[in-house]
C-alpha cells in the first residue's frame, strides 16, 4: 500500500481480536442495553444435541419425503433407524366427560410438552368445548382448549391442533398470544428432563417409539398416516449440514492455515531485525509492524483453540 503512495496512521491499525476492539464491543453492547435498544429474553432456537449448539436455518438442508421413511439420526448408532414422514393421530380425554378430542402430530414425542389444544372459533364441532380442559395422560397436566383463527385451519385434519409452545415456532407464537406455559423438555444432550415425567432421562427418538406403545395401552392411540401438506404430496424435513463436517479434514485445514500464518509471521519478524530496517524505518511504522506480528500470534492461538474444540467434539480430549 505504501508503494501506491497511500498514507496511513499505522499506529491505529487494528485486528479483530485486539483487546481494544473487544473493549469497544463490550462498551457498545452495554450502551445499547442501557438505552433499551437491545435486551435479553428467552427465544426458541434450533438446538443440535449432537454438536451441543444452536443452529441457524442456513445450517440445515431440506429433504423431501413422500411418506413413511426410516432414517438414522446423528448421535445414535448408525444401524438404528427412526420413523419420519408419519402423521400420528391420538386422543386427549376431556376432563369430567366421556368425550375425547383427536389431534395429530409428526413428532409424537413433543406431546409431553403440550400446554393447549387449539380449535377455530367458528368450528361448530368444538364450540361446546371452548374454555374446557383435557387431561394429559402421562404428566397429569390440565390442558386448556383455546380458539385461534390465525393458527387453526378447520378444514385440515381433525380441526384440533396440539400446541407445544417451547418446541415449535408456530406454536411459540400461539403461546405468546394466549399466555400459555412454555415447557422445555430437552436437556442439552438430547435426553428429556424432569418435565417429561416418567420419560425423564430417555433420549428423544427412543421416546418417539415408546410413547406410541403407551398411548395404545391407554386406548388413546387412533392411527397413523402419511404426512401430506403439499399438492405433490411431498414434505420437507431438516437435516443438519454442520453435523456432516469431517472433523479430521477440518483439523487438517486449520493446521495448514497455522503453518502458513506462522511462516508469514516469521518472515515479518525477520524483516524487522535487518540493519537497514532498524536504521531507516520510522518508529511509527516499527510499532505498527510489531502490532501486526502480535496479531499473527493472536490468530495462531485462536486457530489452535479451534483445533482443541474439534478434538473435544471428536472425543479425543
The poorly predicted ranges are 229-238, 240-244
Strand count, sense and barrel status of the largest sheet are: 7 strands, mixed
The percentage of residues in β strands lies in: 15-25%
Strand elements, count: 13
Helix content: 25-40%
Q: Helices and strands: which structural class?
A: alpha+beta
Fold and architecture overview:
The protein is of the alpha+beta class. It is 32% helix and 20% strand. The chain has helices at residues 19-34, 169-178, 204-217, 247-271, 275-280, 283-314, and strands spanning 46-48, 53-55, 60-65, 69-71, 82-84, 86-94, 100-105, 116-119, 133-135, 142-147, 160-163, 221-226, 235-240. The strands form four sheets. Strands 6, 7, 8, 9, 10, 11 and 12 form a seven-stranded mixed sheet that branches. A two-stranded antiparallel sheet has the order 1-2. A two-stranded antiparallel ribbon has the order 3-13. α4 (247-271) runs antiparallel to α6 (283-314). The protein starts with 18 loop residues before the first helix and ends with a helix.
